[in-house]
């Protein structure tokens, strides 16, 4: 690797404020804030959403029961097709 071209990689504490959980992982993000966790001091970065609070990962995602355009068309005109068959 070439010297002096790579960003500083260090261990950072990310705080998911929605789920009130911490992730301690390596990152190149820069911050002036610090936090002490388990006797160690880490750079601190608050985040709004992580895998602990996002509905897709937690299984609490709401699915809408919306049909597509074809189903809507069929529902709208299904009586028309049955009326044609009866008149023949």
Descriptive account of the structure:
By secondary structure, the chain is of the alpha+beta class. It has one domain (10-87). The protein contains 2 helices and 4 strands; from the N terminus they run ββββαα. The protein has helices at residues 55-58, 69-87, and strands at 10-16, 21-27, 34-37, 40-47. The protein has a 4-stranded mixed β-sheet with strand order 2-1-4-3, with no helix packed on it. β1 and β2 (21-27) form a beta hairpin. The N and C termini lie far apart (81 Å). The mean pLDDT is 82. Keywords: Ribonucleoprotein, Ribosomal protein. Part of the 50S ribosomal subunit. One of its GO terms (biological process) is translation. It comes from Pseudoalteromonas haloplanktis (Alteromonas haloplanktis). Belongs to the bacterial ribosomal protein bL31 family. Type B subfamily.
Characteristics:
structural constituent of ribosome; four-stranded mixed beta sheet; Ribosomal_bL31; ribosomal protein; single chain; Ribosomal_bL31_sf; 88 residues; alpha+beta; Large ribosomal subunit protein bL31B
Assembly form of the protein? single chain
Shape: elongated
Number of helices: 2
Placed side by side, the strands forming the largest sheet appear as 2-1-4-3
Give the rounded overall mean pLDDT.
82
Q: Estimate nothing, just give the exact number of structural domains.
A: 1
Poorly predicted parts: none
Roughly what fraction of the amino acids lie in strands?
A: 25-35%
Major sheet, described briefly? 4 strands, mixed
Protein name: Large ribosomal subunit protein bL31B
InterPro entries: Ribosomal_bL28/bL31-like_sf (IPR034704), Ribosomal_bL31 (IPR002150), Ribosomal_bL31_B (IPR027493), Ribosomal_bL31_sf (IPR042105)
Family: Belongs to the bacterial ribosomal protein bL31 family. Type B subfamily.
GO molecular function: structural constituent of ribosome
